[in-house]
What does this fold into?
Amino acid sequence: MSQRQMLIGMQLGNGYGSQVTAWRAPGVAPRNYSDFDAQVRYAQAAERGKLQFLFLPDTPALSSDLTHEAPQMTLDPLLTLAAVARGTERIGLVSTASTTFMEPYNIARQFKALDVMSHGRAGWNPATTSDPNAAANFGGTIAERPVRYQRAHETIQIVQALWGSWQRDAWITDTATGRYADTSKINPINMQGEYVASRGPLPIPPSEQGQPVIFSAGGGDYGLTIAGRYANGVIGSTFSIDDARAQRDAAREAARAAGRDPDEIKFFAGIMPAIAPTVREAVERRKQLGVHTFPARVPYLGQMLGIRLTPDQIDDPLTPEQLAAARPSPFDPRAPRALEIAREGWTIREILGHGAIDYHPTPVGPASATADHMTEWFESGAVDGFWFSPDIYEDGIDTFVDEVIPVLQERGLFHTDYEGTTLRDHLGAPAQYGLDARTTAATAS
Amino acid sequence: MSQRQMLIGMQLGNGYGSQVTAWRAPGVAPRNYSDFDAQVRYAQAAERGKLQFLFLPDTPALSSDLTHEAPQMTLDPLLTLAAVARGTERIGLVSTASTTFMEPYNIARQFKALDVMSHGRAGWNPATTSDPNAAANFGGTIAERPVRYQRAHETIQIVQALWGSWQRDAWITDTATGRYADTSKINPINMQGEYVASRGPLPIPPSEQGQPVIFSAGGGDYGLTIAGRYANGVIGSTFSIDDARAQRDAAREAARAAGRDPDEIKFFAGIMPAIAPTVREAVERRKQLGVHTFPARVPYLGQMLGIRLTPDQIDDPLTPEQLAAARPSPFDPRAPRALEIAREGWTIREILGHGAIDYHPTPVGPASATADHMTEWFESGAVDGFWFSPDIYEDGIDTFVDEVIPVLQERGLFHTDYEGTTLRDHLGAPAQYGLDARTTAATAS
Ligand SMILES: Cc1cc2nc3c(=O)[nH]c(=O)nc-3n(C[C@H](O)[C@H](O)[C@H](O)COP(=O)(O)O)c2cc1C
Ligand SMILES: Cc1cc2nc3c(=O)[nH]c(=O)nc-3n(C[C@H](O)[C@H](O)[C@H](O)COP(=O)(O)O)c2cc1C
It folds into this structure.
C-alpha cells in the first residue's frame, strides 16, 4: 500500500516543555533544565512513537525573564544530542546552530561528529540569529539581513564542502599493508568567502548517511534562499491550511529555482496541542501553566482583537460591546482564531488557555482533536508533516505517542515503524556528500 | 595514614592509542577512530583503575600524514566527552579547546554544559594553538605569541566570568510561588577585551563542583602566565627528574606570583610506557607498530646523537665509530637517554622501539619498570602525578590498570578508590565559582 504518509518531528528544549512555565507543572521535576537523563527519556518516548526526528531550536543567549519562566533552550544543543544519540537507536537528531556566531570549521566538525556518533541521524538547522542578546554575547551587534545571509550561505557551503573533504572511499585501514587512508582523497577545500573561509580538510569519515541533513526554519525571502538551495526539511510557523500551502509552495518553488527537485524538501507545520479528555480540561491544563504569565499577555490579546483589554478583566469573557467592536488584526495570523474562541464565550484567561497567542496552532481537547487537525492539514496537501511541540514533556509526549499516533496509524497516515536507520532514510532525502553542485553554481565567489 | 599519594590522568585520543600506528595493532579494530563505544570502553577501563581524569589533546586541524598514521585527535573532544560522561561515574573529563579559534561564549557554554552533564567532572585545557593548519581552517594565519596569549587571558577570564554569571543560589524553582529564579543573581558580565568580549549572562546553573577546572599544557614563559593564574593542573613534557622538578617549581612560583597558594597547582609528567613481560618483548611491541614510520625517523635520531644515520642501517646497531662520535644534542632533552640505549647495543629500530624520540619518557619492560619510574619520580618530589599515554588503548589501559596500579597501591602511593565525586575533589582543587579575584586584578583592562 503506497498511501502518502505524514512525517513528524518533535521539539526538544529546556527539559520541561514548550510552555515556558511547564517547569512547575505537577509531575515535572523543577530542575529538569540541568538533567540530561530527562532529555534522553523524552527522546526515547518520541522514538517509541516512531517520530522521524527531534529538532532543537537554539539561540546563544538568555532571552527570557527567568522570574517565572524557564530558559527556552537546552544547556547546549550538541551535548544534549550527544546524550540522546547514546540513548536512542533510530530517531533523527536535528539542532540549530548559528551561522553568525559560530565558525564553519567548528560547526562542520561537531555536526559531522554527531552524525558519525549517531550512525547517520544528524541534521543541522543553520540560523542567522537575529537576537541582539546573542550578538552581545559575542561582543557585537546584529548586522543587516544581507550581511547575515551572505555569511549564512558562505558558512553552509563551507560546512558542506568540509563534510565532503574526506571522500567516501578515502578510508583504507588495511592492516596488512599498513595503509590507513588514501590521502589523494582527503583534500583541502580552499574556500574563501567574504565573511568566512576555511582550507580543510576536515578529518572525519562519512557517516551511514554520508553527512548531516540541512533544515531551515527561517521565514521571508531571505530564508527561502537558504531553504531552496540546501534544505531537506523546512519548519514553518503557520496558522491556516491556506498559509501552510503557500509556505510549502514557496519552499518548493525556491528548490526548483535552485535546480532541485521540489520533492527533496519536506515542509513541516508546527503544532502545540493541548490534550485532555475534554476541551474544558485541556484549557484548564493550560490555565494552570499560565497563572503567572497570562496577565501580562492580556494587552497583546487586546491588540490582536483591535480592542483595549486589561488584566483586571482576565477572568471575564469579553463584553458584548467588546465583541461587537473586535476586528482581527491583519498583522497577526492568530487573530481570527482568537476571535472565534472569544465568541464562544470563554474568559480571557481561557482564551489564552486555548493557546490563542502561542507560536503554533493549538488543537484543544481530546487526542482526536489533534489527530483530526493533522489529518485535515495533511490530506489537504498543505504539508508533508508536522513539528510537534509538547506543552509539557513529562506527560505530553506519552499522551501524543499513546493517543494521537495510533489514530494516525489506523488511518494509514503515519508509519508503524522506521523504514530505515538514518535521518535521510526517514525523510526520503536524497544522498548527498559534500557540496551539491546544483545549488552552489549560483554563488561561487 | 596520610602519606602523600600521586594523581594519575590518562590521555584519550583517536580511538587507537598514542602510537600513531596503533590502529593496525593486533586486536585493535582499525576503524575505532569513528567508534564512540570504544572511547567509552577505554574511559571505563581507566575508571576501573581509579584514575583521576582523562585528558584530551586537541587541535582543530589535520596535522598528520594519513598514509600510514591515524589522526591524533578525537573526531570532536566535547562530543567524545559527552559520550564518556554518559558511560562513566567518577573519572574527570578534561578537554583542550583553542582560545584562538573558538569564541569565549561558545567555550563557556559547552564546558559548563559538560560539567553539569557529568555532575562536576569537567576540565578545560585552554590552548593557544600554534599550528598553521588550524589557522588555515579558520581562514587565517597564526599570530605572534603576545597576541595569542593576550587573547587567551581575555578568553579564560571571560569564560570564568560567564561560568559565575548565574550565581550559586540564583535558582529558586519554587513551584508553590511560581518563582523560577532570582534574576537579581543572574547578571551580565559586560567584559570587553582587546580581542574578545561578551555581555552574558550564561544561563547555566552551577555543577556539583561549581564550574570546570582549568588545566594548562603549554610551555615557556607565556604558558606559565596561564598556568600560574588559572590552572589547577599542569601537564608537562619532561625527560628527567631534575627538569620535572624545575617545571613543577616554575608552575608553583607562577602561582605564587599570581597571589595563589602553590599547592593549588598539581604538576603532571607525561609517561608513555611500553609494557611487556621482558624488555625485549616490550621493544618488539613497539617495533611492530613502527614498521612504516620508523625508517623516516632515523635521520632525526642521528641529529639527536650528533651523527649521520640513514634508514638503510635501521636493523644494525651503531658502529663503534658512530658510538665514539656520538654527542647528545643539547636541543633535545631525549638525547642522553637515546645514547644510553644505543650504547647497550640495540639496533636503530630497537632504539626507536624504546620510545627514544616519543613525546614522553617510555619505561620499557615489565609493569614494574613503569611502577618504579613513577615511584622514583614521585618520591623525589619532582611531580604530583603522571599523565599516562597508553601506546595502544585496546590492551594498554588494562595492562596499566591491572599490573601497574596495584603495585603503586601496595606501595601506598596511589589511592584505592575515589575520595569524592567531582574533578575538584579528585585533584584537591579549591572551590571556585566565577572569576578568581586574586588572579584577575593584574589584568583588568
Ligand atoms: C519553527 C521555527 C523555529 C525557529 N527556530 C529558530 C531558532 O531556534 N533560532 C533562531 O535563531 N531562529 C529560529 N527561527 C527563525 C527566526 O524565528 C526568524 O524567522 C529568523 O531569525 C529570521 O530572521 P532574520 O531573517 O532577521 O534572521 C525559527 C523559525 C521558525 C519558524
Ligand atoms: C603534554 C602537552 C600536551 C599538549 N597538548 C596540546 C594540545 O592538545 N593542543 C595544543 O594546541 N597544544 C598543546 N600543547 C601545547 C603545545 O605543545 C605548545 O606547548 C604550545 O602550543 C606552546 O606554543 P605557543 O606558546 O606558541 O602557543 C601541549 C603541550 C604539552 C606539554
User: Anything to note?
Assistant: Chain B is about 40% helix and 10% strand. Chain B has two domains: 7-272+365-444, 279-357. Chain B has a mean pLDDT of 96. The first helix of chain B runs from residue 36 to 48.
